[in-house]
Each structure stands twice: as C-alpha cells, then as structure tokens.
Amino acid sequence: MSMAIALDVRNVWWRETLTIVRDPFSLIFSLLQPLVFLGLFGPLLSGLAGNGELFGGSSLQWFLPGVVVMITMFGTSMTGANLQFEIMTGAFERMLATPLSRTSLMVGRALKELTPLVVQALIVTLVAIPFGFVLYPLHVLVGLLMLGIFGVGVGALSYALAIAARKTEWIFWAVQQSLLFPLLILSGMMLPLETGPGWMQVASKVNPLTYIVDAERVLFSGTLASPTVAWGFVAAVVTAAVGLFVGIRSIRTATI
Amino acid sequence: MIHTDALARTFTVGKERVEAVRGIDLDVAEGELVAFLGPNGAGKSTTLRMLTSLLPPTSGTAQVAGIDVVAEPAEVRRRIGYIGQKDGAGHNYRVWDELLMQGRFYGMSKADAVASGSELLASLDLEGLRTRKVSSLSGGQKRRLDIALGLIHKPGLLFLDEPSTGMDPQNRANLWEHILRIREERGTTILLTTHYLDEADQMAERVVIVDHGRIIADDTADALKRKQAGDRLTVVVRPDQADTAQTLLATEGAEPASRPDADGVALSVRVEAASHAMPGVLERLRAAGVDVVAASAHRPTLDDVFLNLTGRSLREGE
Ligand SMILES: Nc1ncnc2c1ncn2[C@@H]1O[C@H](COP(=O)(O)OP(=O)(O)O)[C@@H](O)[C@H]1O
Ligand SMILES: [Mg+2]
C-alpha cells in the first residue's frame, strides 16, 4: 500500500519535474534570486551588526540559513499556482481520473518545488564559503531534510488554497502574498526580532516558521544535539500533517 | 458495464440548490456505444463525473465495470478511461512525456507504456509530434492526444465528455473516424455526451436524451424519430384556398398545422413515409381545385424528437 503511494509520489514528482528537465533555463532565474538576496542583503547586515554581537558571530553564518528557508517558502508556496493553471486547462481533472493516490498528487507536486531548492542551497553555500562561511555538510543535510518535511506541508496548504480559489485566480495570489511576507518577517528570517516591539516577539512565538529558522541556524552553525533542532522538526512535522490533512480534505470535497 | 439506480446530485451555490441530476436509471451493456444528448446544463457532465468517481453522488448508486463508485473509487478509475470536457494534456508538457507518464499513473511498466503509446500515436495521426509542446498543437491534435491519454491503459470502458465541441466539421469527422476504428479494434464500450444532434444521430447506436437532470427518452435514433416525431409533409397554397386544402389534408393524417409563408400559407401534416405519400396528396389537392405553389417532404431529426418531448428546440441554446 505505502509502496504504491511512494511509486505514485515518484511519478507525480517526475511529471512535474519534467518541465524543468525539458527547459533547464527556467532554473537560472530561480538560482540567481537567492544569490542576489545574499549579495545585496548580507553586506547591509554586517554593516548593521558592526562587531557582530547581534548575530552571535559571523552575519553570513546567521543570514544564509534564513535565505535557504526563504527560497523554500517562495518555492513551495507556489505549488498551488501551477496547480491552478492545470485545474483551469483540465489536466488536473485528467490526473484525478487516474488511480493515483490523492496524497501523492500533493506530495509529488510539493517535492517538485523542493527539487531546485537542493541545487539552490548548494550554490548559495558554495558561493558563501570564500566569504567566511563555514560549511558543516552533514548538518546542512539534516537541515534540508527538515525543510523538505516542512515544504511538503506548505506545498499542500498552497495546493488547498488553489483548489479553494479555483474560480478566481487573483484570490490565490492575494492570500499567498499577504501571508508569505508577514510569516517570513515575523520568523526573524531577515532581521533579528530581539530589537523589535513586544507584540512582534509574541507573534513570532506562534509562527511555526520561527522554529524552523532557529533550528536551521543552529544546524548551519554546526550543532546537531540541541532542543532548538528538535523543536524545528516538531514544527515541520506538524505543518506537514496539517497541510496534508487540509489538502486531502479539499480534494475530496471540492467539485473541480 | 454500467448500472445506476436513481443516481442524483445536488449542488449548493450560495443559498441556492441546483438539482443538476435528478435520479438517473441507466444500464449499459458491454460493447455498446451510447450518446447522452441534451442541452447545456442538462446534467450530462455531472452524470459522467459521478460514473467516473470524480464526484460523489448526493443519492442513488452506480456500478461501473462491476464496481461501486462510492465504495471503491480507485478500482473504478483503474478500469475506465475518462476524457473530460477540457484539455487533458498539460499545456507545458511534451506530447510523449505526457503519454508515458499517463501510462505510469495507471501502473504500467515503462516498456508497456512505450508500446501502447507508440501504437496510439501512430493510429491517431500524432506520430512526429512526440517532442512538441502541447500548447503548440492545433485543437484537433490536442483532442486526439486526449483520446490517446484516455486509452493508454487499454480500458474496456471509455467515457467521453463532449469530445468534438468547438471543432470544425472536418476535424470532427476525422476524430470520429479514429474513435470508431479504435472501438472496432478493441471492442471498447463507449459512453459519450454531446449537444450536437447530428453527432448523436450518426455515431451512436443508442441515444439517451437528457433534460433538466432526467432521462426523457432512451432508444436508437431511428426508433426515437419514428415513435416521437414521424415524417412531415408540407405544401404551400394560396391563402384563399387554405381552408379547402386544410380539410383535405386532415383526412391524410393528424390535424395539419398552418403558418403564413412568403408565397401563401404553408400547411404541414404528419404522415408515414412522406416522400411516398407526396404524389397522391398532390393529385388529390389538384383534383379539389387547389393550386400547390410548393411542396416538401421532411424526414424527422432528433431535434424534432426533442421538440416533441419538451416543447423546446435543442438548437435554441446554441
Ligand atoms: N461544481 C458545480 N457547482 C455548482 N453547480 C454546478 C457544478 N457543476 C455543474 N453545476 C450545475 O449543474 C447543472 C448541470 O451541469 P452539467 O452537468 O455541467 O451540464 P451539461 O454537461 O449537460 O452541460 C448546471 O446547472 C450547472 O450550472
Ligand atoms: Mg458538460
């Protein structure tokens, strides 16, 4: 049973990934994006930090995991956009009429958005090394695994949003954009929240992304055995479980 | 192959309830080619989507290929092919990639998918388009690719929702040639929907007329026309002779209908075998001193059937 689902996930993922395989140039923009962010934002931060006490050491070591989380969020929250297009044209209905498991339809699509992430993370990391970034390969790998689990959850939520907004395309974008940036900023991904007002710190505590960002920072700095990492995994698994639950429900109840 | 019992589906849109399908009882035997004919909004797609397990019924039951659609939807999907109203192939994909992946979705091995896909490309005149992006295909090519996607796993039962809507007559004829040949070769049972009268008339062996979510007639096209409409004979006469002609025609068949015509008054009457009745009628009219300006024999169409059943014409909605 679960073997069959794994096979379905692989097939859905590969079909989606074929758009990249057949047109690799589409990847270039998405590879440049994090580099631009790192190159333009990074220096500002180190200027801000001065001696770096705010970031507990090198600002790059602090900022880079945040960029990797950001590209995960950008990518996976878009899962629904491609889906929406295929709901509109009819390809999605054709896939719904096959025996593919409903879970695999979501997980496969979310994993596709995560696929370039591995390449992106690799490139960003390699570029950062000459500027003083210290790489802990095993820790980064664990960090990517956590992001993978989290990303499937975000992808599934984006998928459910696309189905809910299938009749009015702009609603998808309105909701996606108005959630994405507050979540990112309130996770302390771009700037530390310690200097922010109290309500921001409270808001960040209920934002699952905060736990992911914190865990990634600990992992990228070379620590594995830390409660922060454990909380990161809890946040990732909870997000994935909620996302899949909501996503599967929306496939079952929607009348596409 | 298909058995339904009071199959119904209601949608709730805002505060309004839309009874899309109101209790359909249908039996389709293996090997049949059945057309669901009805105006837009009659509930054809909704019925098809329930039969293919894409939409749960509000009430009633359906067995498709021997399996209950609510209890085991995935099993139903494994056994059928479904070609929806919109494009099945993803616009951003290549033809061959879509076809192979579709085979994989049905659990076929790569080799089987390649073999079946190659066969379908050849037989549907799509050879040479393998690496083409779907969005660059013509309407007719896209539709043939949809057919290939629906047949890749060699299903015994195929559902087609408005397969030829929006196509020009030549492409439509071409598509039908392919569908009928594949059916011949594979013995596939086919249930399709259409709102084109001539399509249902010419292609299907059995026509199920649907209106407002109900089946209102179910027979061969010929039998429907014979029983529900019958031939009509029309003569045009001078207005001052209309009464005489009308009295005479009343003895030929049911009561004649008259309407004004550019050349006088047109009188039409239902008769059996209109073209054979014509010479005798003309002779009797002449003998009674009526000058016939024009005459025509009218074979019934499915539109006459629909008109007779509902009081509306199917063509109005187009
Ligand atoms: N998902 C849906 N939500 C609400 N109403 C629907 C939905 N699908 C179909 N309907 C309504 O059900 C009726 C039948 O539609 P449909 O089955 O698509 O007709 P047909 O295919 O014969 O043109 C129409 O009134 C249509 O507006
Ligand atoms: Mg329809």
What is this structure's SSE topology?
The complex is a heterodimer of chains A (256) and B (318).
Chain A: H1 2-22, H2 25-49, H3 59-76, H4 79-89, H5 91-96, H6 102-128, H7 137-164, H8 169-185, H9 198-205, H10 208-220, H11 227-253
Helix pairs in contact in A: 1-6, 2-3, 2-6, 3-6, 3-7, 3-10, 4-7, 6-7, 6-11, 7-8, 7-10, 7-11, 10-11
Chain B: E1 2-13, E2 16-28, E3 33-37, H1 44-51, E4 59-64, E5 67-68, H2 73-79, E6 80-83, H3 95-105, H4 110-123, H5 139-151, E7 157-161, H6 169-186, E8 189-194, H7 197-203, E9 206-211, E10 214-219, H8 221-228, E11 231-237, H9 242-250, E12 257-261, E13 264-271, H10 274-287, E14 292-298, H11 302-310
Parallel strand pairs in B: 3-8, 3-9, 6-7, 7-8
Antiparallel strand pairs in B: 1-2, 1-4, 4-5, 9-10, 11-13, 11-14, 12-13
Helix pairs in contact in B: 3-4, 5-6, 8-11
The complex binds adenosine-5'-diphosphate and magnesium ion.
Adenosine-5'-diphosphate binds next to strand 1, strand 2 and helix 1 of chain B.
What does it look like?
Chain B: Its main location: membrane. Chain B: This is ABC-2 type transport system ATP-binding protein. The complex is a heterodimer of chains A (256) and B (318). Chain A is mostly helical and 256 residues long. Chain A has one domain. In chain A, 79% of the residues lie in helices and 0% in strands. Chain A contains eleven helices and no strands. Chain A has helices at 2-22, 25-49, 59-76, 79-89, 91-96, 102-128, 137-164, 169-185, 198-205, 208-220, 227-253. In chain A, helix 7 packs antiparallel against helix 10 and helix 7 (137-164) runs parallel beside helix 11. The longest helix of chain A has 28 residues, at 137-164. Chain A is globular, with a radius of gyration of 19 Å. Chain B has a six-stranded mixed beta sheet, sandwiched between helices. Chain B is an alpha/beta fold. Chain B starts with a strand and ends in an 8-residue tail after the last helix. In chain B, 44% of the residues are buried. Chain B folds into two domains: 2-226, P-loop containing nucleotide triphosphate hydrolases (Rossmann fold), CATH 3.40.50; 231-299, Alpha-Beta Plaits (2-Layer Sandwich). The interface between A and B is medium-sized, with 24 and 33 residues. The structure holds adenosine-5'-diphosphate and magnesium ion. Magnesium ion is lined by residues 44-45, 85, 161-162 of chain B.
